[in-house]
Amino acid sequence: MHAMKSLHIIGSKEMGGAERWFARFLAAMQRHGAPVAAVVRRGSDLARRHLDGLPVDQLPLRTVWDPLSRYEVAQLIARSDAPIVQTYMGRATRLTHLAPGRGKVHVSRLGGYYRLPPFAHAHAWVGNTRGLCDWMIRGGLPADRVFHITNFADPARPATATELDALRRQIALRADDCLLLTAGRLIDVKGQRYLVDAFARLPQEIGGRRLRLAVLGDGPLREQLEQQARQLGVADRILWAGWQHDPAPWFHLADMVVFPSRDAETLGNVILEAWAYGKPLVATAFRGAREIARHQDDAWVVPCDDAAALAAGIEQLLRDPALQTRMVERGLARIRQDFSEAGVVAQYRALYAQLADRR
Question: Is the distance from CB of 181 to CB of 217 less than 8 angstroms?
């Protein structure tokens, strides 16, 4: 397939799921021989440390209304030799308006149920779930220019015994501890308050193993969640690990992954990470999970916003090692079949070629 170059623009300041996907996706494209270039906000987390080995430009990307920022984006696009310009989230998309007659295509990738008018000027749209694509079409975007391409799961990064021992010592993880892991920005849609509540409802030990919970991520709700844990008497068994640039050692040490998002969550990359790392998964039945997870097959799925059901699901799965083993096998198979890096990259490259032919 022709190695068509693409330019990717994102305007975020801090790291989150969309930003992590941006870095992972561009690195994967490059690995598979597709030339890419990135434009990120000056001084952002992405600019500082997450795009090593990729060609990167930094722009101020001040606000969505700033005419100077829009001009700077237009000038950079005009200088670029990439026929495909892909934007992520609102700021980058609203600042990107391609001049007519230049032969370039603007693809807007949506990872959530955003207001559609700020995205309507793009030439094509990518949604990472079928539900999101259907919603875009119902919202008035032309069906023949809305494309479903899911996210891929990174292959599990091997961790050395030295790395794992160091992390065990760092978090004082005992040999008989059972470590539950969750990951995500500490914001309302991720539902961590229901998980803290559920954790408090669980026995301190199951099968002679002390339960502990590691929370990977940061965000505005951290202080509130820590206060909740103190009030419920479980603060001493919860690890607030903050944002982890490399979460691999944490996934390797985990006995189970729990993903408690609320209904508005679009896809939920943590589901894919749990499967890729071969970990039993308890997830809520949010929009993305209803589309990709299969209850008692590759995940134990419980209602959203229901701490009692979440606690019951965690306990039931922890007490059934045979079911855990079956779920892990199915999860690994789902990654191979539906969420491989090579497959997703191939779909994007085919889409770019298709859109370029339409110019």
Answer: no
